[in-house]
Amino acid sequence: SRLYVRKGKGYKERYVPMSEGVMHELKTYIDYARPMLLANRSAGRETEAALFLTERGNPIKKDGIYFAFKRLLERSG
């Protein structure tokens, strides 16, 4: 399977190969988890176009992803 990325690095369009398992998990996140995260946003804020959101419903920033991976790496040894 391939995922179409509309605005990737440098605003380039591309297709990214993904396993069926990863594609299933991404679809589950989009269908179930992401709407719950958007519901956590403060009233009056418009819907974000960002795919990945924080627990508060805000877009995850580059630094946030970096630190999350760093924590996972430390935990995994």
Rg, rounded, reads: 14 Å
What is the N-to-C order of secondary-structure elements (H for helix, E for strand)? EEHH
Structural class, from helix and strand content? mainly alpha
Q: Please tally the helical runs, counting DSSP H or I stretches of 4 or more residues.
A: 2
Instruction: Count every beta strand, where a strand is a DSSP E run of 2 or more residues.
Output: 2
Largest sheet: 2 strands, antiparallel
Give the distance, in angstroms, between the N- and C-terminal Cα atoms: 31 Å
Shape: globular
Can you tell me about this structure?
- The structure is a single chain.
- With 77 residues, this protein is mainly α.
- The chain contains 2 helices and 2 strands; from the N terminus they run E-E-H-H.
- A two-stranded antiparallel sheet has the order 1-2.
- Strand 1 and strand 2 form a beta hairpin.
Question: Can I get a quick summary?
Answer:
The chain is mostly helical and about 80 residues long.
Helices and strands in order, then pairings?
Layout: E1 2-5, E2 14-17, H1 20-39, H2 62-76
Antiparallel strand pairs: 1-2
Q: Which key terms come to mind for this protein?
A:
single chain; 77 residues; mainly alpha; two-stranded antiparallel sheet; 45% helix; globular
